[in-house]
Amino acid sequence: MSNFIGQGIAGKVYKGILADRQHVAIKHIIKDEQMETFVREVTSLSHIKHPNLVSLLGHYDGPNECFLVYELCYNGNLSEWLFGKSKYLSWRRRLEIALDCARGLLFLHSYPQGSIVHRDIKPANILLSASFEAKLSDFGLSKIISIGHSYASSEVRGTFGYVDPEYQKNRHVNSYGDVYSFGIVLLQLLSGQRVINLDLQNPMPLSKMAKNLTKGGNIKEFADPKMQGKFSMEAFELVLKLALVSIGLKQQRPSMEQVVVKLEEALDLSTRIESDHL
């Protein structure tokens, strides 16, 4: 079917057009007990609006199925752009995508009615608009908690490779779990690699590869070859350090506010260097 976009855990996603000619993405969900919880959580966050969050425009809740109607992001998801062979993202675009995501997360974490923890930050849940503005999607795992507090979860939820090891151990949901996941996404934006590189003779987590390189290796080797060396080394190192501190011990991780500041610094640095070369 030509309007089929893809399949998520919750159901299939299709392109659609509303009566006002607006193009949308429609998620079709066959209901069971687990899916009902998912739908309830998603719709409870439907009033939350931000340029870097995918907008839920409406929903239909039937007895056996339901439909969630989202704004359509024409350029698909970040995973397709990072790992697709024919896709290319410049260094500047990668920084802008990172900054968009960080601003979306900062908005969620500092929401006045209670900090919203996303719990499933990964490239597949970062959608790209026609102008490549990044938007966080899939709020099915989100939890609203009091700012500065944590919530004890009965089960570990999230995606393998992106879940905070501290959350896996103690099951305490807090905003620092999102910071960890975002740190892994930053490493992927820098390297263009998956969370575990299975091409190596000894498969190694991306986080370990990055940590090993900073202990005396050539940091430039970590850069995605698709960028062909066209990036500011100073800005690259700044983002790499930010990613590594984000996946470090919880008490040493930055807040999303600090992450935004650092990424703005890296973007300014790259912009200045670009203009110097003109």
Poorly predicted runs of 5 or more residues: none
Q: What is the radius of gyration computed over CA atoms, rounded to a whole number of angstroms? A: 19 Å
Oligomer: single chain
| CATH fold assignment of the largest domain | Transferase(Phosphotransferase), domain 1
Q: Which H/E pattern describes the elements? A: EEEHEEHHEEEEEHEHEEHHH
Largest sheet: 5 strands, antiparallel
**Number of extended strands:** 13
- Please identify the structural class as seen in this structure: alpha+beta
InterPro entries: Kinase-like_dom_sf, PERK1-13-like, Prot_kinase_dom, Ser/Thr_kinase_AS
GO biological process, one term: signal transduction
Subcellular location: Cell membrane
Pfam families: Pkinase
Describe the overall structure.
- It is a single chain.
- The chain has 278 residues and is of the alpha+beta class.
- The longest helix is centred in the C-terminal third of the chain and has 21 residues, at 256-276.
- The protein is built from eight helices and 13 strands.
- The termini are far apart.
